[in-house]
Specification:
heterodimer, A: 175 residues, mainly alpha, Rossmann fold, three-stranded parallel sheet, 7% strand, B: 263 residues, alpha/beta, five-stranded mixed sheet, two-stranded parallel ribbon, 17% strand, extended
Chain lengths: 175, 263
């Protein structure tokens, strides 16, 4: 910005496009209306008035994966549910983010040894951005997870990612 | 009516197949022959003095010699209850793939429908004449019945990995196939036969016959995951024994400490 000092009127800001898009994205993370087990109760508390997720622009749970940016996976993912979770994730549009909420989702939790049909962590099925452990985590912990996710989204290099994707695609065409 | 009166009334109505009343349990129960079960249930439901309107639980227990199926009946009208049990003795030389068979009572009590499906799903009890004999909790392509003592844990369910150290499915190399659970071929039935083979020994189950090599001097470390495709016997009871030994050691140490503290 040093080069542009005094080049604009006082009420204008200069930003990189990446930063501007990241700021827009992180300020309107729309989570999906989705709950599996007991962690979903804490997640609902986060949406509700006491903890008020709307402060961070994420208080608009969407009823369909096609409109959502974020899937919070709250509760034990078993073999039968894992297929559904993966399908929901696949239906979301890029960029999409995943929060694994609770001990079961972070790595099996109490079912890690004797859970015959428990997936030992939802990261075996879909790539996870933020892990929020706890059984269940307090609403504050989930809010902290969402704040961490906001930081992560804000750091995303949109155009660099697009460049990478372009290179990958052209490499795939050539092969 | 108390259980004794209910039992004598039931016995009058269907004398064959109704055993003695066992009052040693908290819920006194009557052992009924499988062949007389439906008749006894119909009588208990329709007899105005019994008026058992509700079958509130069907459950099964695997024991050394038998699998027992218990039916908990109760009456809103008379505020009494009775438990019926069907005992399916384990045939000589039966292995874990044995699955007993009991007549379904879903035609008498519709509430039995899902309970019987659950018992089929988790313990492999087959209910003859059930209107919809499918699994209810586990995926339909699941193999085996997890609450059996000799159940062997699966490594995956279809495409879904179930092990702690499994590779995430989005990181699998191209052309990856599960060596133990090949994808279901087209045309194969969704419901697995109850005697389908299972993949991995369940650490909590009954110990297998000892290996010819000295198994007793195995280190106390956690048994390494078996190489895939090896269907042989691995140390099954070891996890439990290990834990028991640890608990005993901790208890002994605590007792010693306390003694020292007292002295």
């Amino acid at each position: 910005m040093g080069l542009l000092n005094n080049a604009f009127p006082d009420n204008a800001l200069t930003r990189t496009v990446d930063e501007a898009i990241g700021w827009g994205r992180k300020s309107s993370v729309w989570p999906m209306t989705f709950g599996i087990a007991c962690c979903a109760i804490e997640m609902m508390a986060v949406y509700a008035a006491t903890f008020d997720l709307d402060r961070f622009g994420a208080g608009v749970p969407r009823a369909t994966p096609r409109q959502s940016d974020l899937i919070i996976v709250p509760g034990t993912v078993n073999a039968k549910m894992a297929v559904r979770v993966k399908r929901l994730y696949d239906q979301m549009a890029e960029p999409r983010y995943v929060i694994a909420m609770g001990a079961c989702v972070c790595g099996g939790g109490p079912y890690v040894k004797w859970g015959y049909n428990t997936v030992k962590g939802v990261h075996k099925i879909i790539p996870v951005d933020i892990f929020v452990p706890g059984c269940p985590p307090r609403p504050e912990a989930l809010i902290d997870g969402i704040l961490k996710l906001r930081e992560k989204i804000g750091r995303n290099d949109v155009f660099r990612r697009r460049q990478e994707a372009k290179e990958q695609m052209s490499a795939a065409y050539e092969a | 009516m108390n259980e004794t009166k209910l039992h004598s009334r039931l016995r009058e109505a269907c004398p064959s197949g109704v055993g003695d009343l066992d009052t040693s349990a908290k819920d006194p129960f009557v052992v009924v022959e499988a062949a007389a079960l439906v008749e006894a249930m119909v009588f208990l439901r329709d007899d105005p003095a019994c008026a058992m309107e509700m079958l509130h639980l069907v459950t099964a227990t695997e024991r050394e010699a038998a699998i027992e199926v218990a039916y908990h009946l109760c009456s809103y009208t008379h505020h009494h209850s009775l438990t019926l049990k069907v005992v399916c003795p384990r045939p000589e030389g039966a292995d874990q793939e044995w699955s007993p068979s009991v007549p379904s009572v879903a035609s008498v009590y519709p509430s039995a429908d899902w309970h019987e499906r659950e018992q089929y799903d988790l313990l492999g009890v087959r209910f003859d004449g059930h209107p919809d004999p499918r699994r209810i909790l586990l995926p339909e392509e699941w193999i085996g019945h997890p609450l059996r003592k000799q159940y062997v844990y699966p490594t995956s369910s279809g495409d879904i990995p179930l092990e702690l150290d499994a590779t995430p499915i989005y990181e699998r190399p191209e052309g990856w196939t599960d060596p133990e659970h090949a994808p279901r071929a087209a045309g194969t039935p969704l419901v697995q036969p109850p005697n389908a083979p299972s993949a991995r020994p369940h650490a909590g189950g009954k110990a297998p016959p000892p290996k010819p090599k000295g198994e007793g001097d195995e280190p106390a470390t956690k048994p390494k995951p078996k190489p895939k495709g090896d269907g042989g016997a691995a140390p099954k009871g070891e996890g439990g024994d290990d834990m028991a030994a640890k608990i005993a050691a901790i208890k002994a140490a605590k007792a010693k400490k306390k003694k020292e503290g007292d002295g």
